[in-house]
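## tool: complex_structure
## caller: assistant
## args:
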Amino acid sequence: MIRLTIKVLLQFLVFVIMVISIPMNAQEIQTYNGPLQIGKYNGKATYSYKLVENDTVLDGDFTVLRSNLQELLEKQDYSFQFKGAFVDGKANGPWKFQFGEFNSKSQSEVIDYQYRVLVSGIQKSAIGKIKMGKPNGKWTIVEEEIENSEISKTLFKSVISFDNGVPQQNFSINNENYTLVGRFLRDGLAHDEWSLFPSNGMDQSESWFFKDGLLQSIRVDDENDHKTIKAYQGYNGKTKIINLNAGYINALEIQLSQVDVDILHHNSLPELLKQNAARYQEVDEILSELGKSKFLPELKVKVPYYPLDSLEVTKVDSIVSYYKKAHELSESILHNSQLNILKLSDNNTAYQYNTVLQLKENFLNPIQEIVSYDSLGILEYTSQEQLINHVFANGLPKPQMDIEIQIDSVISSKSYTIPSSDSISADTPNIEKIEAVAKMGYDGILSIANEVKETLTQEKRQNELASLEEEIIIRNDSMMVFIDSTSSTIPLKYATALKQLKSFTSKTINDYSKVKSAVNRLAAARTTVECLNNLNELSKTVSQMPNYQTTIKEGYTDRIWNPFMATLMDEDIKKRITSAYSKTLEPYFLNEIDQHLSCDNTKELNSTINATYTKILELKDQDTKKLERKLKRQKDPITILEMLNVQNTAKQ
Amino acid sequence: MKTFRTYSIKLIFLFFLVFQGFSQEKEAVELPEYSKYKDLGTKTWINTYGNIRIGKRLFWDAQTHLRLEETEATPFFGQVAQVYNRHAIGYIHSKYFNVRLGGVLRLNFNTDEASTDRNLVPEWRIWHQYQFAQSLASMMIYHRIRIEHRWTQGFAENSEYIFRNRWRYMFRMKIPLNNHKLKPKTFYVAPEAELIMQSGKAVVASPMEDLRLTSTLGYILTPRLTVAAGAMYSQGQDLKNGGFFKHSWAMRFHVYYSPDFRKVKNKLPEIHLTD
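## result:
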């Protein structure tokens, strides 16, 4: 009895434990083992996670990897391995990312009872620590070229220390050509000397001197000389903290003279930073797929800040809009093939064309530079005076200019004045000066565009005529070939209709050739091409009419069981419909072609024939008792077409 | 054809049984020393045959025949002899075999011009038929077995019905003349031979009721309508005395029609049967 009670108690206990443990399980860390797709990476993963409101939140160790020996041996394999840990869906702890693209020449060696396959290719890796999604501590990113399983070249390497996502202390970035070393303040601002020196040791090296994020000067050293380029040294006004990227370099260049800009290694510093950013981006994309991430390193600098007020912003918008319109017009003129040909022989066209070129150079190109600064968002990082000095190094362009024309090696010159009422005085605010230049450029281009339009229309008309006439010939030829080859294979009555179409085509072309006036000729050419198109279609339809007849006959034949003969017999059904087609409508169509063909009715006739055919086929499966009764003794084709509802279809 | 052979064997076996039955009967009819032919008669048969489809495989067989006979004054069609109403429900097993079962009401007119008995008496039949068709080159061959159970009575007042069975086999060919097969707008020739045997208490020495040799020329107007005309010679034993043979010539005119009133959508998939 007691044992029985204990057994019952035990069963109850097990039940209670199970009931309690099921919901507990839901909060517990679970492990996943299986395939996983992260963006473009598809591999085998092992990770821990928990369920929070039915969402999978990564928590604990994480590994995903892929490598395929078979593919490697066959052609090429990409392999990768991401290893790290998460806390509450955010990457946290030491992480390692490795990507590789390898191929093997099927070389192998045996070492310690293992087969080793030698691979060549490129291996990229990123190793460091992450604190709740942000880089923390030293991060090393390397890209190496591997040859026969040994590192042969370092293509890229960056070592940056972070504190909670903010770059700190010393860093170094190098690619095949340059090495950049520098230092950050605790708040991530560039500080002190950043040195950029070439790997080959031959080219010049640069030292960028920052003070609290603001670039003071750049010293350029080469073998026998050195030069210091002044940057924002001595600036005391408002500043703004921005990322060190291509936009910053552009803003900087506005400050520098063209000579200085040419001395500097073009963009090699931002290029290195860009390469670096791309690699951090790669890691960030992976982490973002898995959870929340903010892995991009932000290398900060300070720039002078000249904020635009709302009026100035409107001016900038109008500059952009003038530029876009003028640019579009000038491109359409400069790339117009007819103008390009005409300008070789026609004085006036050459004048117009060269004026546009001149306007482009004097007005549009400088404005384009300003527009590009606007799109980079760096207009506020330079004073407007500096901007004008930089863009219009030779002073603002004048509305009068001399246009040089060269035809048959004879050079002449003619002046051009932009028809614009705006004038620029010395005390006009800078932004308005720029706007005025943009408007003048647009006005100039517009006036030329209007002049050119007339030249073009005439030219266009002649070209159109030429191409239409070419088309007339092609259509005619193809139709003649078609009719000649088809006529011999179809019954006589259809062949006769085709013959009629052929002679009508010749007549149409003959009529066209008699049109003399140039204006009428273009219209005539257009209608002739259309007419030939329609005739072409109609002749195809006529060549199909024997098939239409057979198809209708076959369609309207039923197989009937004759019990007296014990034989299946073909029976023609709905004879009134089929005979309306074959005895009234088809002869009517052929007669129309023979007697009443004109360019005006060809298209309609063609569509009537085809619509009739389609309609007849459709009627087979429809209840047509009433129609059949009406068709009885009806011999008028027009009335029959109306009954079939075809005439209307054709006219639509 | 195996089915057909089985049927034939059964039929022959049946004949033997019947003959055994005859030999046991005894009648006081004197047979002539030699068989004798009665006077040659002349007739005209005007027959309509309807086959009306009522289902995928079922049809209604509706036949109305008008049979005329000579009088003293007029050969072939002097007087009405019989009016047939033959009906049945048929079942199409396949292109090559069909069966049907039904009844006949035949109105027999008294053609004996001297008789003073009743002028018209009905005759009742139950009939079933098994028809086999086969194609041979361009023509069709048909074997028809028809079995009839008939109740007839004489023209005399209050005459009793007598019951007889009829055993009929017909061989028929249809040979297209102006086409390679039987199809609309085709003339055809149909020679046929039918042997009609009978049995029953009243049949003592005259089991061969009729042997009909017919030839018709037909024309298929449409798949649903055919007309034919021809001549028939027939001879058979007189029921009362097996020693006497009736024989006659008949002109035959036939109309075959097979309407199908079913809706198109019901009809379409079944037209081909199983071919």
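## assistant note: Chain B touches chain A at residues 49, 51, 53, 59, 90, 92, 95-96, 98, 131, 133, 140, 142, 174, 181-184, 220, 222-224, 226, 256, 258, 260, 264, 271-273, 275 (CB under 8 Å). The first helix of chain B runs from residue 2 to 24. Handing back to user.
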